[in-house]
Amino acid sequence: MARADLRDSYRDVAFTTATPFGEADGEVLHDALAENLSGLYDAGARQFVPCGNTGEYYSLTDEERAEIVETHVAATGDEATVTAGAAGSVAEIERLASAYEEAGADAMMVMHPDHTYAHEDGLKEYYHAVCDATDLGVVIYKRGPEVTRDTLLELSEREEVVAVKFAVNDIKEFAQTVADSSGEVTWVNGIAERYALSFAIEGASGFTTGIGNFVPEATLSLFDAVEAEEWERARRIQRVLRPYEDLREDVGEGNTLPAANNVPAVKYGMDLAGYHGGPVRSPLVDLSERDRSRAEEHYDRIEAESPLEVI
């Protein structure tokens, strides 16, 4: 896909897809994954991000990652864009990029740096080396302060960098970064539906979704309302979706680490909606009974508000 077309494809909802695993042995269920993807495509999804945090990237092997991307390409239509997650050393990313390209991916999302110690100049060199190592489009994923504004501004000048997923709840920083950028990248709100309106006003042309894995129509309706600047309708949809998003942000029972509910809440929602969610892999844990009840309540409310034209 041409770079200009790739940039335009991110002016949409990017579905960060979950990976279904078997109950007994935890293997990737490719037939179930294909069914999930076909359902999302039929609902209107066109931008897919496999092997991200929602897809449990860090619990997958490189072989599994490449196979998951191949399933995405095969299960979605020609209009779809597939952006595969990648992390690690430049050499590892280069190997993954080669496998992703062979599988038919359009772009690669470089996950937020997981290095214990890093230097800003070193990170810039790292991203430049990644861009030099692949013909795929490159999406930069920012989830914390390590990827600085200066880094993003410098990388936005690279032809290979087609989008930035800005997943930090800092509207001031986002707005200033977009204003300072002279590159042609597409800016994507990486913290989903709850902040779709605020980030759109400040320059985000699209947003990512996790709950779109099981309520794609609601997520796409929110995007349509934001794109049309129908702000009151967008707020009504957002208010219906927010409780489930808040549940995802919870730590879960018996835990103090942040947002541990994130992925299992998505997968349980998929089960409720008739998609294939299933269990998570370690070190994640499934929802507690209490949080399952909360998920059911929030999901039922979303369903009760359909059809979405009435929201």
UniProtKB/TrEMBL annotation:
It holds the Pfam family DHDPS. SUPFAM superfamilies: Aldolase. Gene3D superfamilies: Aldolase class I. GO terms for molecular function: 2-dehydro-3-deoxy-phosphogluconate aldolase activity; 4-hydroxy-tetrahydrodipicolinate synthase activity. The active site is at residues 141, 165. PANTHER family: 5-DEHYDRO-4-DEOXYGLUCARATE DEHYDRATASE 2-RELATED, DIHYDRODIPICOLINATE SYNTHASE. This is Dihydrodipicolinate synthase family protein. It comes from Halorarum halophilum. The lineage of its organism: Archaea, Methanobacteriati, Methanobacteriota, Stenosarchaea group, Halobacteria.
